[in-house]
Write a structure and sequence with these properties.
Helices cover 32% and strands 23% of the residues. Helix 4 packs across helix 6 and helix 6 crosses helix 7. It is α/β, with parallel strands linked by helices and 245 residues long.
Length: 245
């Protein structure tokens, strides 16, 4: 495992984790938000927060929830008493912006914000520390991603292949996505003013013409978006040693 950031580094720049979890899981088709579905008897969100909480270098975890969310307070707040809860917005970037607004009284401009999907319960501390150690001297920040392994086809609207892409040039973006606090605030504000909906934080940074660094992470840092993903996540949690058979 990579070395954890040292205490001296922490005094210069703090690391804040921000978890947008205000979605209602439309794509999954579940009656409850996907972050509250159970994996081996524990909520998806609990697995996610557990990993972030294990990172001693993270100052605080900011959890952004739907304004009508009562589940966390009733079922998980006691297990994660140090998590700071903020109401979310309509889109993911609105929720992240709300979390950043909450941090304005706490974070300095050059502090780091690590935005992590609530529905990525298979993140390993090893990848988290790898991201931090790789980017700690960077002026902007970057993302965890895994390189595409399958052959990629580019098609037209009728699903006819136009050409085959060079897969070594393509990556599957994951989270955490880690950027300087002030830059991320500015990027999301600019996106909102332009009417641009960024599907991730990196897209907002890219839209400002800033370089985003890719840090290669594990391909099993799965995001749960379908019923099939739930079964795979259960398997991966056991395979990754997060639970015991």
């Amino acid at each position: 495992m990579p070395d954890l950031p040292t205490q001296s580094e922490q005094t210069i720049n703090k690391y804040w984790a921000l978890v947008p979890a205000a979605g209602i899981g439309k794509r999954l088709g579940s009656k409850i938000p996907k972050q509250y579905l159970k994996l081996h008897g524990q909520e998806v969100l609990a697995w996610t927060l557990q990993t972030l909480a294990a990172a001693d270098f993270i100052e605080k975890i900011v959890l952004v929830l739907h304004p009508d969310d009562n589940y966390f307070a009733g079922h998980l707040a006691q297990k994660f008493p140090d998590v700071l809860v903020v109401p979310g917005g309509e889109e993911r970037q609105d929720s992240v912006a709300n979390g950043l607004a909450f941090l304005k009284g706490l974070a300095k401009n050059d502090d780091w914000v690590l935005v992590h999907d609530a529905a990525r319960p298979c993140l390993l501390l090893e990848d988290l520390t790898k991201l931090v150690n790789h980017l700690k001297e960077d002026a902007v920040g970057g993302i965890l991603a895994s390189q595409v392994k399958d052959t990629l086809k580019h098609s037209d609207e009728s699903c006819k292949v136009l050409d085959t892409l060079k897969r070594n040039e393509y990556w599957l973006a994951a989270t955490p996505q880690m950027f300087r606090f002030s830059l991320l605030c500015e990027a999301l504000n600019s996106a909102k003013e332009a009417g641009f909906i960024a599907t991730d934080e990196a897209a907002a940074i890219e839209a400002m013409g800033l370089p985003v660094t890719i840090v290669e992470g594990r391909s099993d840092n799965l995001k749960i978006t379908s019923q099939e993903d739930l079964a795979l996540a259960e398997f991966l949690l056991q395979k990754l040693g997060k639970i015991h058979a």
